[in-house]
Amino acid sequence: MDNRIDLEELLDVAITLGYRLLMCGAEISRVEEAIQRLLRAYGTTGDVFAIPNCLIVTLCPDGTAPITRMRRIGPHGTDIDGVERFYSLARRLCAEKPKPEEAHAMLRETKRTSATYSFPMRFAAYFIAASAFAFFFGANISGGVLAGIAGVLTGLWLRALDRLQVNPFFQTITASFFIGIYSQALTHFGLILYADATAIGALMLLVPGMKITDSMRDVIYGDTLSGVNKLMQVFLTTAALLLGTGTALLLSRALWHTASVGISLDVPYPWWIQVTAAAFSCLGFCLLYNIRTFGMFICMAGGALGWGVYLAVGRFGATGLLCNFLAAAAISLYAEIMARIRKFPSFSYLVIALLPLVPGAGVYYTVEYLLQEDASMSLRQGTQTAAIAGLLAVGIMMVSSVFRMIGVAKQQMREKHANRRRA
Hints:
Blueprint: H1 2-23, H2 28-41, E1 46-51, E2 54-59, E3 67-72, H3 80-96, H4 100-113, H5 119-136, H6 141-163, H7 168-188, H8 196-203, H9 209-221, H10 224-256, H11 271-288, H12 294-315, H13 320-342, H14 347-353, H15 361-371, H16 375-422
Antiparallel strand pairs: 1-2, 2-3
């Protein structure tokens, strides 16, 4: 009986740890792995099943009935500092194996001491991310600054809707509509030449770029249910972006008899400006995703590295798809190395550094061609966007799989040595 009470307390610790990781936006595979390691460290076995909105943990003690806990995961964002803190705590629990009540206290203390950026800092992040992405897509100085202002206004609007508990679908529709009509008005009154770079810079705050890649990566890894769940969120968000942006362009035509969308994604800046813009776009999202201290510089360097590889490979005549694949592989390798140096999940560096490669502009140009009644180009743009996302996922998976195999091989060698010593 006492053993069952201990197991129930251990199960509470495990599901609380997993809940905290998921609420911080951790990867599904990372959450399941952390809980499994915790259970093994305490000398028991169990099953873990996680999807973005639910976590189920079952202990299977010998000779007794299984014990199961389930916890629903509510709406949440991405808190990289929280992921790092709770993952570090998971490693500490596995090493020290404190009593369950002490583990609960450590979980509460980790939650209590977690810090987030102030609202003024977050609004500065909206400005930095939107303006840097606008430069990244070819905007001039005025276009970049105006994109940053659109980013701040979008952040204020999203915060107001959050307080009113408005669903994310409506938030995305209204925010993308504002960005679309804002950029069209700037073009109509001659403040910017083309609307596309300014609009895309601000729209990158709304584009579910990482969810596109995450969903495909989950499917490739075999976490099909989680991948489909995320993919449905991507479809809904993309539909909201299409609806909001498309309505803004149609209204622009009705008001001003034009809808300026730009001409291409050819960026007129030299490589070093593009790489710098990629790094600063990562800085904005570091603040939005609550990355702190030295981790910000690692993510900025990763974003610059990825785009530098993209440009370098392109110079040798590689196609855009191959450039994206090799750049994603380079970022994944960099993230895995940094993760092992700092003892944090590679997710902490991968999620930010990959953003300059995310095909966020594809949504805007899909709408553009659709409104121009060019269905073939619209379909081509949408297909290319999906292909890029898939190749990014494959590039990440290939590198991470190699590191996983190395890790498993090392673990098996340690177990063999331990068994030989016992014999």
